[in-house]
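Listing S7. Sequence submitted for prediction.
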Amino acid sequence: MLRVPNALIDAVRSLSRLHRQGRSTEVLSGLDNLIKTLEFGNGSGSNEAYQTISDIWNTRFDSLCDRLDNLESQLPGSENSDEVPSTERLQDLEQKIDSINNRLSQFAEAIMQLQSNINNQPRRSKPYYGNSYNQGQSVRIQPIPEESLASRLGMTPESLRKEKDSQPPPLFFAWSKRKDTSGIGWEFNEKTNLYHPVT
């Protein structure tokens, strides 16, 4: 912080403002004048510095006013405006919005038509494991021996037997369901000595 006489406070504030705006040469020139004023202790340097700052400020202010007048003249509805009047612009926007709404309703109709076509197509039944199934009837997968299930799960019969023996039936069911490509769980039936699918 600088301590300056009351008469120089406005000049210092103006210099600070110029510095923040990046006008370094004007700041340095103004500081030189201010330092001379402080060294000699008379008011003539202060008036000079204040006059320099005032001239710069007036130039910038006039430039800003000119730019503001230019912007105002470009606003719709002003006397010097070359723009289309606001009522015409509103009508143009309304026409564009109507056009967009029409296109959206056409898209909605097309989507509804596509959905209707998809829903009316005959559904294909998914192929089941094995070659024998009757069309129109659900095919029930038959129990299979250990070798067939091992092949289906992509492992050897010994590995399958080891998994079956090391887990309780619910865990074996969950494990086989994860391994089966069709997502079917299997359980071993000791009476038939076959693996039965559980759905």
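Caption to Listing S7: primary sequence and predicted structure tokens for the chain studied. Residues 167 and 175 are 9 Å apart (CA to CA). The beta strands are 185-189, 194-198.
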